[in-house]
Fold this sequence. Notes:
40% of the residues lie in helices and 18% in strands. The chain is α/β, with parallel strands linked by helices. The chain has two domains: 11-86, Helicase, Ruva Protein, domain 3 (Orthogonal Bundle); 95-300, 3-Layer(aba) Sandwich (Rossmann fold). β4 (158-164), α9 and β5 form a beta-alpha-beta unit. The longest helix has 15 residues, at 70-84. The protein starts with 10 loop residues before the first helix and ends with a strand. Residues 2-17 have low confidence and may be disordered.
Amino acid sequence: MSAEQPVTSVAPVDRVTDEWTVKRILDWTTEHLKKHGSDSARLDAEILLAHARGCKRIELYTRYDEPLTERQRALMRDLVRRRANAEPVAYLVGFKEFFSLPFKVTPDVLIPRPETETLVLEAVEIAKASTAERLTLLDLCTGSGCIAVAATKATVKFSTTATDMSEPALAIARRNAASIGVVERIEFRHGDLFDALPADSIFDVIVSNPPYVSDGEYETLAPDIRLHEPANALLAGADGMDVLRRIAAEAPQRLNFGGHLLVELDPAQANSFSNMLRPSFRDVRIVKDLAGLPRVVHAMK
């Protein structure tokens, strides 16, 4: 969303006296959100209307001509107004799908992104290739828990620890682990990166989607992100690499020999971070996401 001026009304929905069917609401909302800068206006409209009606998105198209109730219209008006003011859809409906799993999200946690699934896929492939019955997995900066929970759900091999410096974020992560059925296999610890762990804790796999946005870049982010998502989950100093440097310095001592480090970052940081790791790791490679962008650095000790 590009508009930062508050949108106080979605007046056309209020003024009409004839029926507002599912189709009509979808079409009007799509055009309204386009005007306010959404680059996914139709999808936004579908998700918001399905939420307002308490149904699945596909059901909107099987009930195209049904009118909305007054309660549904009132809820939809509020959702559309807030979305036009750049509130993220995931926060409005309270969840985001990630790795085909539903994750609860609030403004206390970063919204899971599709590109982060690359990190989970790499971790799962490590587990599949291993002959070990059990692997210890550490997820730093867990946030909503999407990486830790999705990876743990995908394979029974992982015994997982997830850390975050935000207690509200950890509460969301625990809730997601419980709802997805893996809470008994994940230990959640509060603290800053490795400081959350006992001094002698070492792991087979370490994964992280840490803050990696520079101070300058932060000012250019879309209002959806800059005005609503937690800044401490995004910002990482003048060049965006403050947390990456800490991970590069501390991760080698926390990995078993033959262990793996997987870190998501900005594509422009991939080469610099890889060079930081090479003195301590025998194999360092860059993994591209589905868009073909360098997204994950995978290092083997």
